[in-house]
C-alpha cells in the first residue's frame, strides 16, 4: 500500500513517522491484525470471514496468519454467532465478530440486548462482556431493502451498549482497536459506501479514493481513537451540521456547494455521545441541522435534536432541522432520492439560514 510521511509537532520538536495509505477495509483489517498480535485472547469469527476473508475482504489473511482457532467461519446463524461470542467473553476471551450486513442482525437482537448489554449490570460487575459486533451498514451501493439498512437507533436505546460509526480509515482503525480493548459490548457500524473512498453523495461524479485523502493516512501500528469524543471536520460560525458515517462527507459537500459557513461535527460515537462538543458549537452558531441516512421517524437524529433543544434553546435563532431517509423500506429503484444527498442537505441549510 502507498506510504507517506507525517510530521508531528510535540514539545517543540519534530517527529517524522511513516504512514500507510489505507482504505477503510484495510484499516479495519489492520486494527484486527494489530489487536490479535498484541493479545492472544482476541478472536475473530463470522460468516465467510476465514478462508474467504469476508464478503468485503475485511478479514482477508487473518486466518492464514493466526490459524483456524483464532479466525474461523461460522454457520449462517446470527443468533448463534452472537451467543457464542457472549459465552466466549464470559470465559475471558475478546471476540470481534462480523455480522455480514447490519440488516441480518435482527435474529441476534435478543442476544445483544437481553444478554450482552446486561451482563455487567446483572452480575454486579463480576462479569463483563468485551465483544465487538462489526457490521456493514447503510446504502448507496444498490443493495436494496435487505442490504442497506441503518439500524443504529435500535442500539442507542439499549443501556449497556456502546455504538460507534467511523467516517474514515484513520478513525476506523483507532476506534476499532479502542472497541476491542473496551470491557463492554460495542456495536461497530461500518458505512459500506465509505469502504473504498469518502463518498459525498454526488453519485454522478467519480469517487475520490482514500489514497488521495488526508484521513486515508493510517499508522501501521497500535493507536487508539477515544470512544465518546466527536471531531469537528469543518469550522464555521453560521450553522452547525451534525452527522456521522457517510453523512459527514455529504454534509461537507453540501456546505461547500451552498457556500454556507457551516461547522460540521462528526459524532463518531453515538453512545456515549459527545454532548459538550455539540452544545459548544450550537451555542456559537445559533442554528443546527442534523443529518443521518436512517429513516426519519425515531431515528438517532431525533435524540440529537431533543438534546440541542434542551441545552441550547436560548441560543437558537431557528428551529432545528433533520435531513434523513424516507419512512419506507430502502427502495432499490429510487436509491438516490432516498439517500440524503448534498442537494437535500443544502436545502435544509438554506431554510435554516433564512428562518
From TrEMBL:
SMART domains: Transket_pyr. InterPro entries: THDP-binding, Transketo_C/PFOR_II, Transketolase-like_Pyr-bd, Transketolase_C. Transmembrane segments: none annotated. One of its GO terms (biological process) is branched-chain amino acid catabolic process. One of its GO terms (molecular function) is branched-chain 2-oxo acid dehydrogenase activity. Its cofactor is thiamine diphosphate. The keyword Oxidoreductase applies. Keywords: Oxidoreductase. The keyword Ribosomal protein does not apply. It comes from the Bacteria. Residues 22-197 form the Transketolase-like pyrimidine-binding domain. Its EC number is 1.2.4.4. PANTHER family: 2-OXOISOVALERATE DEHYDROGENASE SUBUNIT BETA, MITOCHONDRIAL (PTHR42980:SF1), 2-OXOISOVALERATE DEHYDROGENASE SUBUNIT BETA-RELATED (PTHR42980). This is 3-methyl-2-oxobutanoate dehydrogenase (2-methylpropanoyl-transferring). It comes from Rhizobium azibense.
Amino acid at each position: 500500500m502507498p506510504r507517506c510521511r507525517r510530521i508531528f509537532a510535540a514539545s517543540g520538536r519534530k517527529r517524522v513517522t511513516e504512514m500507510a495509505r489505507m482504505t477503510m477495509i484495510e484499516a479495519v483489517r489492520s486494527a484486527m491484525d494489530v489487536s490479535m498480535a498484541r493479545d492472544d485472547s482476541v478472536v475473530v469469527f463470522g460468516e465467510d470471514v476465514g478462508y474467504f476473508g469476508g464478503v468485503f475482504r475485511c478479514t482477508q489473511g487473518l486466518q492464514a496468519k493466526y490459524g483456524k482457532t483464532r479466525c474461523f467461519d461460522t454457520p449462517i446463524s446470527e443468533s448463534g454467532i452472537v451467543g457464542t461470542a457472549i459465552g466466549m467473553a464470559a470465559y475471558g476471551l475478546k471476540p470481534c465478530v462480523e455480522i455480514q450486513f447490519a440488516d441480518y442482525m435482527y435474529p441476534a437482537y435478543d442476544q445483544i440486548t437481553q444478554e450482552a448489554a446486561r451482563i455487567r449490570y446483572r452480575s454486579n460487575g463480576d462479569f463483563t462482556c468485551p465483544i465487538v459486533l462489526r457490521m456493514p451498514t447503510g446504502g448507496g451501493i444498490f443493495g436494496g431493502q435487505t442490504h442497506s439498512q441503518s439500524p443504529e437507533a435500535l442500539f442507542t436505546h439499549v443501556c449497556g451498549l456502546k455504538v460507534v460509526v467511523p467516517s474514515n480509515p484513520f478513525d476506523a482503525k483507532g476506534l476499532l482497536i479502542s472497541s476491542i480493548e473496551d470491557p463492554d459490548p460495542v456495536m461497530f457500524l461500518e458505512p459500506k459506501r465509505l469502504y473504498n473512498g469518502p463518498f459525498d453523495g454526488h453519485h454522478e461524479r467519480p469517487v475520490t479514493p482514500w489514497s488521495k485523502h488526508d484521513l486515508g493516512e493510517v499508522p501501521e501500528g497500535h493507536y487508539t481513537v477515544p470512544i465518546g469524543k466527536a471531531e469537528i471536520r469543518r469550522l464555521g460560525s453560521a450553522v452547525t451540521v451534525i452527522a456521522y458515517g457517510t453523512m459527514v462527507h455529504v454534509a461537507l459537500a453540501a456546505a461547500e456547494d451552498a457556500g454556507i459557513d457551516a461547522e460540521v461535527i462528526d459524532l463518531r460515537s453515538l453512545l456515549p455521545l459527545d454532548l459538550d462538543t455539540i452544545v459548544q458549537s450550537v451555542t456559537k452558531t445559533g442554528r443546527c441541522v442534523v443529518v443521518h441516512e436512517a429513516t426519519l421517524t425515531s431515528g438517532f437524529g431525533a435524540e440529537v435534536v431533543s438534546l440541542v433543544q434542551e441545552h441550547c434553546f436560548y441560543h437558537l435563532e431557528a428551529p432545528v432541522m433533520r435531513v434523513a431517509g424516507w419512512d419506507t423500506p430502502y427502495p432499490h429503484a429510487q436509491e438516490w432520492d432516498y439517500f440524503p444527498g448534498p442537494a437535500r442537505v443544502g436545502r435544509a441549510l438554506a431554510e435554516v439560514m433564512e428562518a
